[in-house]
Amino acid sequence: MFNTARKALFAALFAGLAGPVFAADIPEPVVEEAPPPVYEQPADIGGWYIRGDIDYHKSTVRGIDYMTYTIDPCNCTVTPGSKSFDFGKLKGGFSLGGGVGYKINDYFRTDLTADYWFKSNFDGGTSDLLTTSTEVSKMSALLLLANAYVDLGTYHGITPYVGAGIGGAHVKWDTVYDPNTTETNPGASNWRFAYALMAGASYCLTDKVILDAGYRYSHIQGGRMFEWDASSAGPGFDGGISTHEVRGGLRYQFGGNNGCSVPVAYQPEPEPVYTK
């Protein structure tokens, strides 16, 4: 009986001593550090921008009418009438412009622009039953427009767009005169209604700078072209000016994303991985 109790005591002591030794040999689980989760960066599309443009344009004058006066020598009465230029042509010219705008989202932006058209030469002619006359002058204009554009998506950094604008133009005609005679008429200057239609494409140079190239058709309402002069007839009125423009320029966006950058995709946070 004593031997049995002694064996039981030795077994208990052995188990108590061996447990920590065996436990020390068992490796504890190691938690691997998971990579930090990557979240989608919000596409902050939108922001203020400024722009600068240069163009070459070709304008067409839609008819020119002017007042005439017939004097009856018998009773000294004056009878007013009207005549039209046989033709009138404007040569091509250049313009410089600038503006400020706001990109609302991926597909819509607006801006206010001002373009100064440098002087274009005008050649025209009139005639009656007895004589013909050559008429020359120059025309310049300041075109102010409020514009809206629809961007049609970005493909490899290129964004095609269409747009329209509405506003006004200050048209200035120089003196209209016949270089072969002494007849002159002072040129007129006035504000007129104007609108424009645009199409083009932009290209991302950087995340802030965009190259813009396109076409714009603009129309300026008709108005007074020249005043009356005692040595000639008048006043005269042009029927409106239609202009085709080839434009190029740069836009610089101050804030937000101009649509050129691709946001980082969302990755869910992974579960911890345990290894033995």
Automatic annotation (TrEMBL):
Signal peptide location: 1-23
Record key words, sorted: Signal
Domain Outer membrane protein beta-barrel as annotated: residue spans: 44-254
Entry keyword rRNA-binding: no
Pfam families referenced in this protein's UniProt entry, alphabetically: OMP_b-brl (PF13505)
Keyword Signal applies: yes
The protein, known as: Porin
Naturally occurring in which organism (per UniProt): Mesorhizobium kowhaii
